[in-house]
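I hope you will forgive my troubling you with a question about protein structure. The full record is reproduced below for your convenience:

——
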Amino acid sequence: AVRERVAQDRLPLLSLVQAEPLQVQSSHLSFQEFYAARAICSGRALSGPLPWQWGVWWANALRLGDEMGSAFEQGLLRAAGVEGHALDLCKRVGGDRATACQAVTILLKSGTLTQVDLSKNELGPSQAKALVDGGAFGASVTSINLEGNNFGSEGAKALAPA
């Protein structure tokens, strides 16, 4: 019954991707983003790029997940395979820079990480501001390496209070 209704475009929340084998997707991306965030809360391993290399599609999933709180923060750590208290992202930040910084901020807000290396990622002033405004440098982060980025004076001003 579901197969027939989707094929006839009579099931408003689902769109047909492929008839055989049956593959459907949510008609509205917010459903997919919400369920992606929920899956991350469960700590499921990621099959694609790591969070600090995500494209812009993940921005809303990260926003929804951030609203879910510590379950999402801890799940994102597990899903990304982050173990221990240090995160080495030297020359590893990629994808959409704003989305990658959003993901890094959530990881750092988890309270688990004490050391992070964000060196040599060519991050600019807007990324510095995003990290600070997002609360990335909370009480748990005691050591951060930011050398080799392109923060300039504007980025340095944003980072100074952190």
